[in-house]
Amino acid sequence: MMLKKFIVGLTGGIASGKTTVANLFAQYGIDLVDADVIAREVVSTNSDGLKAITEHFGQAILLTDGSLDRAALRAQVFDNPEQRLWLNNLLHPMIRQKMLDQVQTSTSAYVIMIVPLLFENHLDSLVDTTLVVDIAPELQISRTIQRDGVSKQQVEHILASQMTREQRLAQADNIIDNQGDHEVLRSQVFGLHQQYLQQAADLETNVHD
What we know:
By secondary structure, the chain is of the alpha/beta class. Helix 6 packs across helix 7 (152-161). It has a five-stranded parallel β-sheet, sandwiched between helices. It has helices spanning 18-26, 35-41, 48-57, 70-77, 81-105, 137-148, 152-161, 165-171, 182-208; strands at 7-11, 31-34, 111-114, 129-134, 174-177.
């Protein structure tokens, strides 16, 4: 089915400021579809996703209130590629479908889809254009340590699991440099907003031609 919505895939490494950038677009009335939020929804209490996980891994995967014990699940899949693959095969199609459903119900001129692993999980195939929020790795490390209270080693481990800055930038259609002050960021977003409005209008024209 052809999606007649212009979709911007927003991504960036850890602590690059994806949420900040997305919220600036939202101030212009643009709908946000957030993969992280949806990923939590598909395993929420009583969801089909959580039922399937419980059937597969057993009740030990649940907390006493019936919600998912994320730490227990992480422990199950951390060093087990087979189990991780099983989990991804279950959840990725659910997340993908829910994202597309949200795009379809959106009423804004275009949609921002926030996907941390946009390129890694090949979800860039769902979008019309890609936008990478970019900051230097040193800044990513210091911001993550500050924000999440984790060690430098843990942050470097997360960075190693994501694609490199060079790979990400090479695949980006547009890039926002998030190393300056907020006004610089705001003006970059405004410029791109104008561009996306035009691209969305062009798509609309092509669809009706």
